[in-house]
Amino acid sequence: MIFTKRPIKHFVLAAFIAASLVFGGSGCKTHAPAAVMDGKDVLLDSLRSKYGDEFTFVDNAGGGTAVTDHCAIHVRSEKLPGDTVYAVRGVFDGKTENRDNYMAYYLKADAEAYLKAIAEDVYGRCRAFYVPDDKMVLPEDMGKDSTVQEMLRASKCYYTVVLPAGQDMSDKEKKLDMLFEKLKADKIRCYLYIAYLDDDKYYESLKSAADMDKAHVAADCVLGMDDDFNITDKKWG
Prior knowledge:
Layout: H1 8-22, H2 39-51, E1 55-60, E2 71-77, E3 85-92, E4 95-100, H3 102-106, H4 108-123, E5 127-132, H5 148-153, E6 156-163, H6 172-185, E7 189-197, H7 200-205, E8 217-225, E9 231-236
Parallel strand pairs: 6-7
Antiparallel strand pairs: 1-2, 2-3, 3-4, 5-6, 7-8, 8-9
Helix pairs in contact: 4-6
């Protein structure tokens, strides 16, 4: 029997290349071998094609390998320059997909208006603020033809309802329960915060929930819910 000898240095080189492909390190690799498309570039191309927008890479947002089986990045878009979009290439329900939360930002104004209308049915005059969860992704089929209701039902957001001064707070628990039941009926999961303010001028001038001065809050409540609409947290302050 004749055995053909292979130079050891060639074997070591082949082993090194194979190991490099399998153990690609953390993050989305930016210098993948020419024959393997980088996960970051796969996601950027997918986002551009799907939304007709231009995207630029911000930073890595999770582990990944050079063979693009998993990658998570933050990007910014030309049409939504003030928002940082989270995009992931990974296995969802046994299938490799590209998912992101672009539509949560694209429909932000519509979502805020929709959630305000729900709160007005309970409280009357009020203001509502909507902030997407920056670590969630929407189903792959969620695109520009999707409605705000579909987007809200497929995600979880931070939803703040702000009430003007002079509110009757004797029924605040009842009204909170009414709002929760409306959200449940509409299948909208969220991190809910209700704030009763003590100053109407401050109420009108408030720019965002993040800017709220607790010194002007007469009473407030945090309400958390799980995916099955079980209340996980409920605390009045």
